[in-house]
Amino acid sequence: MMCIMTHAVFTEVAEFSTGSGVTESESIPDTRTPAKSDCCFVVQGVNTTSSLSETDSNALGTGRLPEIRKVTAVRKISSPVTLGKDRKVLRQQWECVVIEQVQNVVRCEMHDLTNEGNPAEYAEIFLDQFNTYDVPHLVEGAVFYWCIGYTQAANGRIQNVSEFILRRVPRLSRSKRREIALKVAGIRGLFIDK
Amino acid sequence: MDFSSTNDRLAIPPKPRVFELTLFGPGVGECILMHLGNGDWFVVDSCVFPDCKQPVALRYLHALGIDPEKGVRRILATHWHDDHIRGLHDVLKRCPDAVFVMSAALQTDQFAELVYEAAELNKFVAASSTATEFANILDLLGKRSGGSRSPNLFASGSSMLYQGGYNDAVRIQALSPSAQTIADTLKTIASVICTSPENRRFRSLTPNHLSVALQVSAGTVDILLKADLENTSEPHSGWKAVLSSEMRPKRKSGIVKVGHHGSQNADNHEVWRDMVMANPLCVVAPYSRLEEPLPTHADLERIASRTDQCYVTTWPPSTRVKSRPEVDRWLDGATKVRRGLARDPGFVRVRFDMDSAAPLPSVELFGSACKTPLMKR
Q: pLDDT: is B148 or A97 the higher one?
């Protein structure tokens, strides 16, 4: 006999009778972070994925009842199980300053933020790599960040990720504008021929 | 690029009677230093070599053993493209007595307002920002003068920017921008200021047309520094305006800093014919932030048809980027072109004796500077 611990947590929502004399329950996966009181189940039996074993399938044709497997709660886990948190690992990140947009590319100068010792690069990036709504904002002087790395899911699955994040600039506040106006007034004399 | 004083040939300062023109170019950016004689220097634009954040003009003067505070007389920002003004604020800071010169097309406090707004919005950007550089310059000029008087010159098509040097034989005159360009730009700046703050763009102006091109007369030799001034369809702007100006010096130049990194849009047949001697000595600073870096093969062929002595500050102007296997797959799939901007930079130094009746300029090449590829044979 082999014991397999399953990490999925299920919530029982309804109990119904199949007419076979066996009371079964329907469950849906719970995506919330489990509480301390949540249990971990041990399934007794080798096959935990298919609902009917080979023996059971054969038994259906013969009118014999399939073997009933017992599921018992055996222990509580003292620490919570984390399910939803993916880990994001950054391999390289650039700050890119747009030079211009030409046909299907955006021309930019890329500065490596991961290692500032690396020389700047010139690149022409295809516009289809960007979010459609960001494309009109890729004008001269605009800044975006290109992040390349991977996400590691809670189940261990690794997925490579390339992401463009456009830097959206907030409006200058009124007080900042007043501050600029005062500054300009202070140097007005620089622009007057004497 | 070795600027240390152990580099014996590099570190020899020019004699008081020697005129020097040095063009620096790391692939993106250019800076010109001129020795006007008697220890007076003129700085045109600024750039930074990739191995050091200090402006190249200050590094070079330091290597020659010259104190910029005492030697630099003028600092000119031909226009505000970032490849021409990186580090300019630091240069100005180190030269408190130097007169700062900029294009007369920007002689409005509304321009300052746009600069400060753009600088504020670029505050958190790590990459060098043109607006931030200019805002720092305006701050510094304001602090020095108390903001009440103009310590600087605004250059236009007829401005005399310098007169003096060895035996009082050096004159530097601005050839551009034209009156028409100045009027148009001031109008554009005013209209930009009138738009809603959200839609204002510091860079929406076209700065190449505002460039300050220079003609330098040093003794018997004339030098044409074409900046990034381009040809336009308008008769009263760009090179057409320079050619038609009655104020421009009529002497032909024997040394030329080729305009706009050798680009076709700054090449003008009449300028070569009317303002430049036959087979001039040419210098070019390449520009690699394009799909095909400047000067292109066609540009080199065109320049080669004018002269057989043309030198570039660095070649080739860009490099392959370092391979990073874990990210290259993504980069290659998403990009059409990708290349490193930095390579071993270099500079071209031209010197001649202003005392000589027929001076023969000497050309020295440092770093990756070389004779342009088509002229090697």
A: A97
Contact B141 A190 (CB under 8 A): yes
Task: List CB contacts (< 8 A) between A141 and chain B.
Answer: 118, 201-203
Q: What are the residue ranges spanned by the domains of chain B? A: 18-375
Contacts of B321 in chain A (CB under 8 A): 119, 121
Residue B183, burial from CB neighbour count under 10 angstroms (0-12, 13-18, 19+): middle
Q: What is the pTM of this model?
A: 0.80
Residue B140 in contact with partner chain A when CB distance is under 8 A: no
> And the tokens for A27?
């469950």
Cβ of B50 within 8 Å of Cβ of A184? The answer is no
In terms of pLDDT, which residue wins out, B248 or B321? B248
CATH number of A87-166: 2.40.50
Contact list in A for residue B182 (CB cut-off 8 A) is: none
Residue B144 has pLDDT above 90, yes or no: no
For residue B229, name the pLDDT band (cuts at 50, 70, 90). Answer: very high
| Two structure tokens written together for B193 | 């200021």
Reply yes or no on whether the pLDDT at B289 is more than 90.
no
Q: Any chain A CB within 8 A of the CB of B245?
A: no
Instruction: Enumerate the residues of chain A whose CB falls inside 8 A of the CB of residue B203.
Output: 140-141
- pLDDT of B307 higher than 70: yes
Q: Can you give the pLDDT at residue B20?
A: 98
Residues B304 and A96: their CA atoms lie apart, in Å, by 36
ipTM above 0.90, yes or no: no
CA angle B268, B270, B272 (to 5 degrees): 75
3-state secondary structure of B28: coil
CA distance A119 to chain B (A): 6
Q: Residue B210, by phi and psi: left (phi above 0), alpha (psi -120 to 50) or beta?
A: alpha
- Domain spans, chain A: 3-76, 87-166
Antiparallel, parallel or unpaired: β B253-257 and B276-284: parallel
Q: Domain B18-375: which CATH class?
A: alpha beta
Report the run of H or E that residue B286 belongs to, with start and end. none
**Of B172, B361, B200, residue with least CA distance to A172:** B200
- B337 to chain A, any CB pair closer than 8 A? The answer is yes
Nearest to A124 among B107, B324, B336 (CB): B336
Tell me which residue in A122, A141, A183 faces B318 most closely, judged by beta carbons.
Answer: A122
Residue pair B262/B69 in contact (Cβ under 8 Å)? The answer is: no
Q: In sequence order, what DSSP letters do the residues of A143-183 get, joined into one string?
A: EEEEEEEEEE-TTS-EEEEEEEEE-PPPPPPHHHHHHHHHH
- Distance (Å) from the C-alpha of residue B210 to the closest C-alpha of chain A? 17
**H helices within A25-67, ranges in order?**
54-62
Q: Which residue is listed with tokens 């920007």?
A: B106
- For the segment B205-225, what is each residue's pLDDT rounded down to a tens digit? 667 889 999 999 999 999 999
The beta-carbon neighbor of B126 closest among A95, A126, A183 is: A95
